[in-house]
Amino acid sequence: MPFRHRLLALSVALMWGLNFIAIDASLVHFPPFFLVALRFALIALPTMLLVPWPGVPVRWLVGYGFGFGVLQFLFLYWGMASGMPTGLASLVLQASAPFTVLLGATFLRERVSGRQLVGVLIAVCGMALVGWQRAENAAIVPFLLTLAGAFGWAIGNTCNRLARPTDPLRLTLWMSVVPPLPMLALSLAVEGPDRILDSLTSFGEPGAAAAVAGLAYTVVIGTVVGSGVWTWLMTRHPAGVVAPFSMLVPVVGMTAAWVVLGETASPGELVGGALVVGGVLWGSTRGRRPAPPDTERAGPRSNERDPARVPQPE
Question: Would you state the torsion angle of the CA atoms of residues 90, 7, 161, 111, taken in this order, to the nearest 10 degrees?
Answer without folding.
Answer: -100
